[in-house]
């Protein structure tokens, strides 16, 4: 037998040839053996792998001496792991509900694109102006309350943040990160970026498509683009602030939880609860000041000012801006605090 | 740095408020397999976090593979493989992707990580199960997957926290054999925290014993066993007199019927036993050195320590 190569993890199965003749007593074993390799009726030879000679598993330690990538590559790994998990196997396993909901929200967010294309092609001026790019429609694409910011984006954010950090606590997978050269800032920031980018893909991705659709359908020129670009950028910035705010509140809730449900329902409760309370107070006392406790309304107020839309709130927009800053700072503080307390040995 | 030392610390102290979790530890761990022992609350977890560079020490210094634990935590974690005690796997991921992801988190190229994940899972005996979801795995298979995660980048030091925790006899043997093979043929070092003395004894040549945050003992198991070395004798006739005589000649005796264990104080112990037997007219039908288990050793050290911890040198003194 040839000497085994050290690089070969398996030793080839050794076999022995057994010859059977007609005179040999027929037993179950010889029948089976002959069945595997019968050369004739008279006699046959069977390939028998014996325990002593053959092996199906041999443990061989295989060294490795490759180069390890720097910090940014490790961070890119975390980001890619979370985002690509939506599209393909082998990355973070998002559940089917979340994947389907992303698809549904993506399609639903493109209804204005469909209308622009439809009425642009039909040449219906009235309906085209109703759906085409203007200040109000750009604002509505990102911050319209119904259905976008009651049915689509908060629910999507809730589904995304639900288990983002809490599952690492539940499954102990935080140990996988922190026992490797991943620091807590990188861990939290990449998780944050993953959720925010998915939200941005849906909210701002469709906003870009909406703007592009108008340009292509109506054959808009540079003058129109120069006129509308600041509005578009204002709405884009609004989408960024909205995604950032939803993500920071959601992730902070995820970081204080061990399950998916609490952070998800907590985020929706905060967004809808604060808005409802503020709306009741506004209706009863005709005073919009309490909207500063509603993160959604604070973003709306600031973006209305950015886009130059008639504000729907009576208090100064700077208060809403401060409110957004405070909410995000508190949420990020909670997130940082909880992530820094995550254990690598045991929770 | 001493070339053979993989971990060393000098006066390493970690305090949480007023509680001292690690108290001036002077530890030297050589290449090879070392067991980290200690009762609950001894400071094992804090020590592991410290050498992983995850928590800042209050005072003192230390190095792991030549890197300072105070400033080079990331470099340390890049060169070691850590196998946590508890579940640390995403149950909804296939084992192969889980191990691959662990490699990528270290900094491995995705393609290389995939290739290594296959090798690592093959090595830990999960070659055929690598495309199964972790949630369908038994405890033994999950432990093996965690080991594969630790081994993917071929680290110089593997820190295994209770690697045989919750395993049945077969899985436990396989896990211990795998770690042993990694040390013997892979020439890698293992620091194994465990409360199962038998497991530590099977794999490790050295131990570090912590007690209430202090170093209780460290060194080669064989050397430390000298603390509890005894001579076992089977006596026929006048056993009580024999016991008295041995005690009068300054030897420590533990007796159970005709079997006595006499504290080994040096080569003269054997002649003292025979002289005592001759004096009281007792027959010594069998006499041999009694090999203490690591568990015996652990109990003896703990008994001697009481509430006041001594250094291992002090423990060995007076033998």
> What strand line-up does the widest sheet of chain B have?
6-7-8-3-9-10
Strand content of chain A: under 5%
Number of domains of chain A: 2
Largest sheet of chain B: 6 strands, mixed
Structural class of chain B: alpha/beta
Helix content bin of chain A: 55-70%
The rough form of chain B would be described as elongated
Oligomer state of the chains in this structure: heterodimer
Cα gyration radius of chain A (Å): 31 Å
Q: Percent range for helical residues of chain B?
A: 25-40%
For CATH, the homologous superfamily of the largest domain in chain B is named as: P-loop containing nucleotide triphosphate hydrolases
Main pleated-sheet profile of chain A: 2 strands, antiparallel
**Total helix count of chain B?**
12
Characterization of the model:
The complex is a heterodimer of chains A (347) and B (319). Chain A is mostly helical and 347 residues long. Chain A has 2 domains: 8-60, no CATH class; 71-340, no CATH class. Chain A is 63% helix and 3% strand. Chain A starts with 14 loop residues before the first strand and ends in a 7-residue tail after the last helix. Residues 1-17, 36-40 and 44-49 of chain A have low confidence and may be disordered. With 319 residues, chain B is of the alpha/beta class. Chain B has 2 domains: 5-224, Rossmann fold (3-Layer(aba) Sandwich), CATH 3.40.50.300; 230-290, Alpha-Beta Plaits. Chain B has a 6-stranded mixed sheet with strand order 6-7-8-3-9-10. Chain B has a 4-stranded antiparallel sheet with strand order 2-1-4-5, covered by helices on one side. Chain B has a 4-stranded antiparallel sheet with strand order 12-13-11-14, with helices on one face. The interface between A and B is large, with 41 and 51 residues.
């Amino acid at each position: 037998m040839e000497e085994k190569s050290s690089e070969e993890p398996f030793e080839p199965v050794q076999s022995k040839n057994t010859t059977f003749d007609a005179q040999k007593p027929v037993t179950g074993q010889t029948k089976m053996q002959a069945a595997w390799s019968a050369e004739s009726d008279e006699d046959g030879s069977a390939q028998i792998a014996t325990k002593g000679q053959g092996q199906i598993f041999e443990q061989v330690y295989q060294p490795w001496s490759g180069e390890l990538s720097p910090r940014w590559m490790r961070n890119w790994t975390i980001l890619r792991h979370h985002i690509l998990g939506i599209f393909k196997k082998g990355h973070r396993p998002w559940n089917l509900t979340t994947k389907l909901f992303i698809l549904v929200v993506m399609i639903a967010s493109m209804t204005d694109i469909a209308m622009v294309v439809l009425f642009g092609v039909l040449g219906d001026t009235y309906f085209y102006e109703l759906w085409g790019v203007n200040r109000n429609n750009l604002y509505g694409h990102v911050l319209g309350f119904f259905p976008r910011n009651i049915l689509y984006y908060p629910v999507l954010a809730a589904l995304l943040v639900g288990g983002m950090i809490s599952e690492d606590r539940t499954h102990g997978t935080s140990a996988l990160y922190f026992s490797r050269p991943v620091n807590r800032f990188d861990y939290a920031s990449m998780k944050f970026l993953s959720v925010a980018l998915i939200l941005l893909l849906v909210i701002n991705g469709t906003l870009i498509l909406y703007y592009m659709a108008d340009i292509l359908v109506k054959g808009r020129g540079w003058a129109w683009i120069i006129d509308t670009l600041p509005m578009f950028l204002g709405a884009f910035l609004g989408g960024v602030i909205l995604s950032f705010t939803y993500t920071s509140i959601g992730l902070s809730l995820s970081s204080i939880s061990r399950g998916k449900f609490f952070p998800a329902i907590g985020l929706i409760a905060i967004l809808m609860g604060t808005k409802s309370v503020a709306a009741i107070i506004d209706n009863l006392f005709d005073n919009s000041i309490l909207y500063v406790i509603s993160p959604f309304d604070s973003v709306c107020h600031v973006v209305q000012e950015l886009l130059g839309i008639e504000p729907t709130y009576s208090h100064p927009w700077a208060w809403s801006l401060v409110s957004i800053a405070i909410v995000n700072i508190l949420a990020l503080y909670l997130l940082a605090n909880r992530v820094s307390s995550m254990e690598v040995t045991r929770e | 740095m001493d070339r053979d030392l993989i971990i060393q610390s000098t006066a390493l102290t970690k305090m949480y408020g007023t509680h001292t979790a690690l108290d001036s530890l002077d530890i030297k761990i050589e290449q090879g397999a070392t067991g980290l022992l200690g009762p609950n609350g001894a400071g094992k977890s804090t020590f592991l976090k410290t050498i992983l560079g995850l928590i800042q020490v209050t005072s003192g210094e230390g190095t792991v593979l030549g890197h300072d634990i105070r400033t080079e935590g990331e470099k340390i974690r890049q060169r070691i493989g850590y196998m946590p005690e508890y579940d640390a796997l995403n149950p909804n991921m296939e084992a192969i992707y889980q191990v691959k992801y662990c490699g990528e988190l270290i900094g491995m190229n995705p393609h290389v990580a995939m290739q290594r994940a296959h090798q690592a899972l093959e090595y830990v005996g999960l070659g055929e199960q690598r495309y199964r979801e972790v949630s369908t795995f038994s405890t033994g298979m999950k432990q093996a997957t965690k080991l594969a995660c630790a081994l993917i980048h071929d680290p110089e030091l593997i820190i295994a926290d209770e690697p045989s925790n919750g395993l049945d006899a077969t899985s436990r043997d396989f896990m211990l054999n795998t770690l042993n093979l990694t040390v013997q043929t892979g020439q890698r070092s293992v620091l194994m925290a465990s409360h199962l003395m038998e497991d530590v004894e099977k794999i490790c040549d050295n131990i570090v014993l912590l007690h209430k945050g202090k170093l209780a003992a460290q060194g080669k198991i064989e050397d430390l066993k000298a603390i509890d070395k005894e001579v076992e004798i089977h006596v026929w006739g006048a056993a009580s007199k024999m016991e008295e005589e041995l005690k009068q000649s300054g030897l420590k005796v533990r007796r159970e019927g005709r079997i006595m264990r006499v504290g080994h104080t040096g080569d003269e112990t054997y002649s003292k036993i025979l002289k005592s037997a001759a004096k009281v007219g007792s027959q010594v039908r069998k006499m041999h050195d009694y090999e203490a288990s690591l568990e015996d050793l652990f109990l003896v050290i703990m008994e001697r320590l009481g509430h006041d911890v001594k250094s291992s040198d002090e423990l060995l003194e007076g033998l």
